[in-house]
Specification:
Strand content: 5-15%
InterPro entries: MAVS
Helix content: 25-40%
Mean pLDDT: 80
Radius of gyration: 33 Å
CATH topology of the largest domain: hpI Integrase, Chain A
CATH class of the largest domain: Mainly Alpha
Protein name: Zinc finger mym-type protein 2-like: PROVISIONAL
Number of domains: 4
Shape: globular
Number of helices: 18
Largest sheet: 3 strands, antiparallel
Distance between the termini: 93 Å
Low-confidence stretches: 2-14, 381-430
Number of strands: 8
Order of helices and strands: EEEHHHHHHHHEEEHEHEHHHHHHHH
CATH architecture of the largest domain: Orthogonal Bundle
């Protein structure tokens, strides 16, 4: 860039900064470079993919006129035909969410093609009314006729997290195991998005004086900064210091960093695993970033190696994000506190993740299924605190207003089915040390003096 220096008398061009200098004169090359900063690589790739698909459809449909010469009416008609006729390979239907992405991508592509001669904005529902009605009808048709709706990612259960961390295949004594383990820690504890580990830089991971780790992500897909968000400061996540006799994510991450090659030029955090010969000589990783395929299949490989049951479950990399949010929800962490970690900017965004796991939903529904009980072993009155027959509960006659009073004798009655269940679980024998523990939260006795409550549990015969 050229610099412009001004004084009280005249203006001159100079390469040397002065106290009066205030302006720089950018070249066309400078302007193009700055303009490129406003582009998002993934967005450009999506635009290119769908515009190529639209042009291929026009060619297959014998639409020979150049796209730039079409009037709005003709363009709208071709777009209507495209969204009704486009299919995936094998003539399979696109998911509604994919068509929604395609609509936005083509809108961007057409805007770029016709600018600055014409303003084309197919998001305008009034000017492009026919297109929007057909597109909306097409989405509803797919939703009604076929099960092509996008399946949400499933979260891991807490016991599955422990199974993975305890697996011999996910330990730190091999390059593969260390890579899997550190990836698992970072995606779980920092609630990373699917693409975050790919672009994660080694310099973004910093060890603090208190032996915690700070993971800084300067920009994200929903928080890229720019004119719309000039106050963007990125996302700062923290991994607390390791505790004695517990899992040690900080130590695992630091070990991974220590295995980087000397004078490593690759800025990415995750590196490609070296050849067996180099590994034998202590060089675990090469000076190359980890490949896209390795990143994309990371959790699938971890689940397979740890023998986690994935039947009927959509366990992919994004499941790690779902796992953290679903567990926080169970622990009662507020949405506001979760958003500080996840990077969500709206309650609607994070609420989409706030669903219980399939196993938790099964347990919740099971609570609505009544258990069959033997009338000879258990009176229905034992299941309610509100007795209507005072003759069967004479103590209640002297406790006016206490509708929740239940005699201690009835509180201590065991359902035979529950005893049988305990017998199967605990395998109780004559050994008194293996007797079940009865948890009685409260025994309410009123209008009585010198009352002694004795609970005797006999071993099963």
């Amino acid at each position: 860039m050229e610099t412009l220096s001004t004084s009280s008398n005249n203006s001159t061009k100079t390469n040397k900064l002065t106290t009066y200098e205030r302006f720089v004169i950018p070249t066309n090359k400078d302007l193009q470079a700055i303009q490129a900063y406003s582009r998002v690589a993934n967005t450009d790739d999506s635009t290119k993919t769908w515009m190529n698909l639209f042009n291929s459809y026009r060619e297959a449909a014998n639409f020979t006129n150049p796209l730039e010469l079409l009037d709005d009416t003709t363009l709208q008609e071709q777009l209507c035909q495209f969204f009704c006729g486009v299919r995936k390979s094998g003539k399979k239907e696109y998911a509604p969410s994919s068509l929604h992405v395609g609509f936005a991508a083509i809108a961007r592509g057409l805007s770029d093609i016709f600018y600055p001669n014409r303003i084309i904005n197919i998001h305008d529902k009034h000017k492009w009314k026919r297109l929007h009605e057909i597109f909306d009808g097409r989405i509803k048709q797919i939703q009604d006729n076929q099960d092509t709706s996008r399946k949400k990612t499933d979260a891991l259960e807490m016991y599955e997290i422990k199974t993975i961390l305890d697996s011999p295949n996910i330990q730190t004594d091999t390059p593969k195991g260390l890579t899997y383990r550190v990836w698992f820690w970072l995606t779980l504890l920092c609630n990373l998005r699917d693409g975050d580990p790919k672009r994660l830089k080694n310099s973004w991971i910093v060890l603090n004086e208190d032996h915690s780790i700070e993971v800084n992500i300067p920009c994200e897909k929903n928080n890229a900064g720019g004119a719309k968000n000039p106050y963007n400061s990125g996302r700062h996540n923290y991994i607390p210091p390791d505790l004695p006799n517990n899992y040690s994510p900080v130590a695992d991450i630091l070990l991974y960093q220590s295995k980087r090659p000397k004078n490593c030029k690759t800025s990415e955090f995750f590196l490609r695993i070296n050849t067996p010969r180099e590994i034998y000589h202590g060089n675990w990783f090469s000076d190359l970033k980890l490949g896209k395929n390795s990143h994309d299949n990371m959790l699938k490989n971890i689940v397979a190696d740890c023998k986690i049951n994935a039947n009927g479950r959509n366990l992919v990399n994004h499941s790690m994000r779902s796992t953290g949010i679903s567990l926080w929800m169970l622990l009662g962490i507020s949405h506001a506190e979760q958003m500080d970690i996840t990077g969500h900017r709206t309650l609607a965004g994070i609420s989409a993740y706030s669903t219980s796991t399939a196993q938790q939903r099964k347990k919740n529904v099971s609570l609505l299924i009544p258990q069959k009980r033997n009338a000879d072993d258990l009176n229905d009155e034992c299941l309610t605190k509100n007795f209507s027959n005072k003759k069967q509960n004479p103590l209640r006659e002297n406790t006016s207003g206490n509708q929740g009073f239940i005699p201690a004798s009835q509180l201590l009655r065991y359902d035979q089915l529950e005893i049988q269940s305990l017998e199967q679980v605990h395998k109780i024998t004559q050994d008194s040390s293996k007797l079940p523990i009865i948890n009685i939260e409260n025994i309410n006795i009123q209008n009585c003096n010198n009352v002694k409550v004795e609970v005797i549990v006999k071993p099963f015969e």
